[in-house]
Amino acid sequence: MIVEVAFGLPVDKTFKYILPSSFSSKKITPGVRVRAPFRSGVKIGYVVDVLKEGNREGLKEISEVLDSRPVINSDILQLTWWMAIHYYSAWGECIEASIPGLVRKGRKTVKPHKEISIKPDINFKKPRRLTPAQERAFKTIREKFNAFNVFLLFGVTASGKTEIYLRAVELALDRGKSALVLVPEIALSPQTVSRFKNRFRNIGISVLHSGLTEAQRFQEWNKIKDGESRICIGTRSAVFAPFVNLGVIIIDEEHEVSYKQDERPRYHARDLAIIRGKIFNCPVILGSATPSLESYYKAKKGEYILLELPHRIKRKKLPDVKIIDLRSEKRRGLKPLVFSQPLKVEIQSLLDRKAQAMLFLNRRGFSTSLVCLKCGYVIKCPRCEISLTYHSRAKRLICHHCNYKTEKISICPQCQSRYLIYRGFGTQKVVSELHRLFPGITTARLDSDVLRKRGVLEKIIQEFRDHKIDILVGTQIIAKGHDFPNVDLVGVILADLSLNIIDFRAGERTFSLLTQVAGRSGRGRRGGRVIIQTYNPEHYTIQTSLKQDYPSFYSQEIERRKILELPPFSQLIKLELRHKDQNKAEQKAYRIKELLGGVANRDFEILGPAPHPVPRLRGEYRWDLIIKSKNLASTLRLLYNIIGFRIRFEGVKLIVDVDPYED
Fold this sequence. Notes:
The chain is an alpha/beta fold and 663 residues long. It folds into five domains: 2-73 and 85-104, GIY-YIG endonuclease (3-Layer(aba) Sandwich), CATH 3.40.1440; 132-313, P-loop containing nucleotide triphosphate hydrolases (Rossmann fold), CATH 3.40.50; 316-364 and 427-560, 3-Layer(aba) Sandwich (Rossmann fold); 366-424, Rubrerythrin, domain 2 (Single Sheet), CATH 2.20.28; 571-658, Alpha-Beta Plaits (2-Layer Sandwich), CATH 3.30.70.600. Helix content is 29%, strand content 23%. The strands form six sheets. Strands 8-9-7-10-11-6-12 form a seven-stranded parallel sheet, sandwiched between helices. A six-stranded parallel sheet has the order 13-23-22-14-21-20, with helices on both faces. Strand 1 and strand 2 form a beta hairpin. Helix 13 packs parallel to helix 14. The longest helix has 16 residues, at 582-597. 43% of the residues are buried.
């Protein structure tokens, strides 16, 4: 027999090998791993097809068959094939993205040092009855449950979306099928898993996310593959959970940017989940209080089924929201203003009545730049040319893009003056100011710096839930999905950060973040308060987030997108060229534009080239070219015909990113 093999390499083809007669006793099928000679060595590859006949001349023999049964299901092979075409990636790379690292290394068994342990949430009770809106939504899902449909569950924060998810999973289990639940952040996994464990006590539940060790991930993956676990809860990569009989797929907070992978292959988990639902002919439920414009647009057009939960459970009020115009707040000299007077008053009132608060700032570190007052020099990363952030605990300046670190300095490298000051601030500074203003309080911080230590996330979340922490300070990790009944106050320290990113989705992301973080307040018996500090109080994004008025925000934002022909009215492909020589990166960007521009095609428009918003990263200069396409499939075919499939173009690194999201 001849077998067709894909390798986890950036190449646009598969390779044919002969299966020696010594392996004839093994039943070889697509999805098994093999060792095969490749170039000057032997590599692990994945069988994608078995041919009974064909030209055997010049073909090498397979060295070893590693599996007696497929490690990659047929539906995953089908999914990764679509993924390779849609995201301009190699099929082998997509296959490798779908399996644990230890499987890629050829391992068959492994036992983790520590088992995953998440207890059921005994306080999470099943409601006696659904609200009328929940009943309508669930009735629609139940009636259309036996076929592929995409439901957009659009519900305000605390409106009971989780209960709909649980009942949909129940429907799948009752039919003898399995369920896949995606959450956007590792931070949401413990809460979601504990609730599911409480509801489904006798059902195997697996967890898949990047916080697991390789051995833990391998074990969880095997439990799903062997049918021990019928529910999988995980982050982006869990979309590849190896179920053979999926009955429902749920994507919570479907709008989240974290569902987009920022390394090869650059897939979006939400879109892969929808393709997987098609393959299994099962329903896909997208849930959000602030749906992505693309999803809401499709729901309005009738491509998705729109389900609405317009009120909080038990008709609890949305929190009172107050905007503080930082332009009118008094400040002391050059020091950054962290807390406005109204926010300080609210925090003191909250502490007096022994309630809890969450303070949100989407920027980690202590100070965001070190500036010389004499010559204006800003201390920058030598590899990325962006300002270094000061971290007080480590007493170091750190680059948040490449992790370059250096000791803090006291003399300006440019003019040798000592007039250096720290400007801007991050979550560390917020915690420091809290302890200065309110001595004796207990605080905790949740950002990516803190989450580097295993187990810290679960510990902080549990301590905050048990009211051992008065105020939780964090980045977007705390903004979504969490349910803390004692949180009476949410403070947004600076609402403008996400408005200032160079991305056409900046308004959408700001509205979403503000609405989501405000939704953490007022979930208990007492009403909630939200204070938003901003330098742009009149901006429509901030004004509509005041009332969690998504329809009003959508109508203004979709009009802007339509005029500019931006998604959902087109699809974008970003070509990023990188080189240590800036001129080379720029020249090749213009060369690709020239090649594309010579084609008579009205399906796409070329924007740029232009320097990347972070023009230098890890010592390499970056130039971007954006293709705005009305027909993505034909544009990708054209792109392939012109520049081929490669990771270098005429000596310059080339990254092709379909449906790009900027950080």
